[in-house]
Design goal:
single chain, 297 residues, mainly alpha, 11 helices, 52% helix
Amino acid sequence: MPRRSEVEKVRTHLGIAAQAVRDSNPEVFQTLEALRQPYGHRMLVEDRNTPRVPAGTSNVTVMVPAHLRTALQNAALDAAGSDDAKVQNLLGAVVSAGIPKVLAGNLPLREIPRDPRGTSTEKVGLNIAVDADALQELRDALPVLGERLGFQTKASIMKVALRLMLDAYGMDYEAAPSQDLAQMQMHVPPRLAAAIREKLAEAATDLRTVIEEGFGKVVTGTWQPHQIPKAAKGSAEERERVPARVEQTLIEAVRQKCPALTQELGYRVTPPTIALDYLISEFGLEDLADAEYAAGQ
C-alpha cells in the first residue's frame, strides 16, 4: 500500500489530539480541528506587511457548519445594506459589542449544543475581527464564565462568539440544515412587526408560507418588489428582528435575481427586503409601513 503523505499524517495526528481534549478543553479541541482543515496552517502565519484585520482587533476563527457560515455572512451583509462591506468586520463588531454585556451579566447566552457523536458535520472556518481588549477580557473570564452562564461544559471564545452572532441575526445552531430550510432575518419597525403577526394569525398562516409564495412570484416574474425606506445612516430608530425559516432553494433563486432587480429598481434588493415588501403588500399594510418608516427619516 502507498504510504500516506506527511500532510495526511499530520492531519490525522491533529485529529487524534483534538478528540483527546474534546471533553476536557473544548476551545483547544476547536483550535486543533481548525488547524487540521485545508489551509489551517495559515492561522499560524502572521503577515507582517499587510494587517489582515483592523488595528485594535484580533482575528478569531470560529468553526461552524458550512451552511451556518453562509447564513451568517449573508445576514451580516443584508443587515449592513451593502455587498461591499467586509464580513469579518461586520461579524466582529457584533461580537465585540456583545462581550461586555455578557461579562457584565446583562446578556444571557444559551450554550451551543454539541454535535451528536458519530456525526460527520462538515465544519469550516469563519474569520471575524474582534476588539482586542474585549477579547482579552473574555479570555480572562473563561475559567468561571461557563458556570455563571449555566453551561454544561466549559465556556470558550468560539462558543461565546458563535452564540452572539446567531442571536444577533435571529438564528439558532443547527449541525445540519433541517428539511433544506435556511434562516433569514428581517429588520422591521416594532408596530409593523406586530401588525404582520396579527395578520398572519387572522389568516391562519405563517411567515414561511407567505414569504415562499412571494419568493415564487419573484422567481417567475409575476410580482415585482417596491422599495423599503431605510432610516438615515447612524439613526437610532428602533428595529425589531423578525426571523423566518424559508426553503433554501427559493432563497438562492431569489438571491440570483437580486443584482438585476437592484439595477432595474435603483435600490439594493435582498431576500429579506423582498420578503418584508411582500408581507406589507399581501396584508395591505402600506399606509402603516409608510408612517413607520417616515418616522425614522
